[in-house]
């Protein structure tokens, strides 16, 4: 989902910046009204940052990352995951990859737009079952690869469709393995959902009484 610096012209970067600010501004009031979500956003940002740094590999015109979107979404909720993506990318840029700050909005939208699609469709009935998690991951990573294709199509240099296809195919491994990780994590955390720390840190869908 990583777009290399220099691929997009300044005007297109400005478009991405405006779009990202608009999306975040539309959701910021809901986040600010609930202080409990601030802690979950910090957890999401750290979790996402750790996964990104634990594995990243250049593939075709972009990079293959571990994202962990569905564990964050199911355990922490929609808003913490959305803002956690942005905070995690900002943290990565400030600490590890300063050159990536140029494409902060581009990379954030590549993660946020598919999350919004998932949340407003399948996510409404997310229940933590393995079948449901597989569907969520399939839709999410299809969205991520399409977003990368969108940015590449806007690039100053032409990118061969076959190169994008190689990148898209690389995410099949993530889409195949992450549901198992997510399922195990959700089931494990559900066993401690009645504890005070869990109620503070986890989404109410998980910690609500059965």
TrEMBL record:
Annotated InterPro entries: CbiM/NikMN
GO cellular component, one term: plasma membrane
UniProt superkingdom: Bacteria
Membrane topology: Multi-pass membrane protein
Broad class of the protein's primary localization: membrane
Keyword Lipoprotein among UniProt keywords: no
Compartment(s) of residence: Cell membrane
Keywords noted in UniProt: Cell membrane, Membrane, Transmembrane, Transmembrane helix, Transport
Keyword Nucleotide-binding: no
GO biological process: transition metal ion transport
TM region positions: 12-32, 38-60, 72-95, 101-122, 134-154, 166-186
Descriptive protein name: Energy-coupling factor ABC transporter permease
Organism: Azohydromonas caseinilytica
């Amino acid at each position: 989902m990583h777009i290399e610096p220099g691929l997009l012209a300044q005007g297109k970067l400005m478009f991405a910046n405006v779009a990202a600010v608009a999306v975040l501004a539309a959701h910021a009031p809901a986040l600010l009204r609930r202080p409990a979500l601030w802690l979950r956003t910090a957890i999401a940002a750290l979790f996402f940052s750790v996964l990104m740094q634990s594995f990243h590999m250049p593939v075709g015109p972009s990079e293959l990352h571990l994202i962990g979107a569905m564990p964050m979404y199911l355990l922490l909720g929609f808003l913490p995951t959305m803002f956690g993506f942005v905070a995690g990318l900002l943290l990565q840029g400030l600490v590890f990859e300063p050159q990536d700050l140029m494409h902060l909005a581009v990379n954030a939208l590549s993660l946020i737009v598919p999350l919004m699609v998932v949340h407003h469709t399948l996510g409404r009935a997310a229940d933590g079952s393995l079948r449901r998690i597989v569907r969520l991951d399939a839709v999410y990573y299809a969205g991520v690869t399409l977003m990368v294709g969108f940015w590449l199509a806007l690039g100053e240099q032409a990118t061969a469709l076959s190169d994008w296809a190689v990148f898209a195919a690389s995410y099949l491994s993530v889409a195949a393995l992450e549901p198992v990780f997510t399922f195990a994590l959700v089931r494990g955390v559900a066993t401690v959902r009645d504890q005070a720390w869990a109620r503070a840190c986890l989404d109410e869908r998980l910690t609500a009484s059965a």
